[in-house]
Structures are given as C-alpha cells and as structure tokens.
C-alpha cells in the first residue's frame, strides 16, 4: 500500500494505492486497474472480492481510492467527473504504466473508466462496466436523483439513518454510510458530479476497445442496458440472474469468471453459463 501524489504541483491529490502482483513471482502479462463506486473504497469493493484472484491468475492489479474516498485525500472541491478521470491519468503516469490496461469499474468507477477510454483509446485494452453507465444525459439525471436522496435521507437525518443502517445492515455498512454522509456534508461532491460535462453519442461510439457490461438482472440498470448496446453494438452484455445492483459484493465468483475470460489471462476460464447474454429484456 502507498500514498501517491498525482503531481508535484499544487493541484496534485494524494491517492491511496494498493498493487497486487502474481503471488508466485512470475511477471504479469497484463495490468488491470480496478475503480470503485461512489461513497465506498477499493478495500470494500475489490480486495475481498476479485482482486487477489485476478493477481493469482497472472494480472498486475492496481486499486486506488478515489479522491475524497477511503484513505485518499479529501479536498473540499473539484469533484467533477473530469477530476476523477484526470486522477486516473496522472496515477498511471506516476506508476509508469505505459502498456494498455484493462479498466474494471463498478458503478461510478465504470463511468470514470469509460470516459478515460474516450480520452485515451491507445492506453486501454478493454473496459468492464459492472452495474455502470457512461456519462450520458440520462446518467446525469440519475446521479442527480441519487445525491438528492442521499442529502434528504442520510445527511439531513444522519443520526437516525445511521442507527437504522447499523441495526438492519450491520456495523460494516454503517461505517460506509457514516463515511458517505461525511463526504457529502463536508465537500462539494453532491453539486459537482451531477453538474459534470456529459459525453455526446459520437464520443460514446468512439470507444473501440472490447466492452463488457455486467448487470444484476433485477437491478434498475439492467433495464437501461439497451442504451449502451445501441450506441456500441459490439458490447458484451451479461445479466446475472437474481442479482441486484450489489452484484460485485453478492456474486463475486461470477463476476470474477467474467473478468478472467474477458481479460484472457492464463488460468482464466470462461465462467459456468449461469448468466444470460444479449440485450436487456
């Protein structure tokens, strides 16, 4: 684990980074960068789900906490989507990763990954979106609704909300909820992200690397999968039966199998066919 400042200048952000190499000492054949969603961290999202197994299969795994999240620096402002993408750009430069990488993004992390692929197609070998969408007009409306609910239900009634989460979801989820409330309360993130510049349809169509989109079949995003598929017909859409938005946490084995087959690592085998592929219903 390390804290890495993205630049030497005053606009640099200290990011908490963890890197996992293949445990047997053999050189990795590819690099995967794992990007977590909003209001959580890389430890909760990836370390206890898919990261160790990806490294064991021969992948150089890079995880980091987004600005304001986990152990990374928490400035008051500068939380537009473009700021998160710039953090990724600068981090890869700092780590001297020059070969094309596989980007794996859960929820908002997938939105960051996709925009990075638009900016730097030559630096991306593939993108996996887990319960995620590119930053389109519909995404902006959805994310604005999410933050309005967070402010109303969590921040404005924080004590009652945290007590309910602790009683019904456990201490771990309550810890994440407490951190989320603090982030929304003490920074401009709830204003900045919904106001982010969105991608045009032409920009979405410009992505030429392989795109894997993984959805829980019961999530709201599964019903919106057709939007991405209509703009990028080559997208491989997979719907995991009986799963909701928390598919990475609740079905990590299935997600791992899809990632291994997508990245194409030695030792990665196609998953048992428990997921339906194709257009959303």
UniProtKB/TrEMBL annotation:
Keywords: Hydrolase. Residues 33-252 form the AB hydrolase-1 domain. GO terms for molecular function: hydrolase activity. This is Alpha/beta hydrolase. It comes from the Bacteria. InterPro entries: AB_hydrolase_1, AB_hydrolase_fold, AB_hydrolase_sf. SUPFAM superfamilies: alpha/beta-Hydrolases.
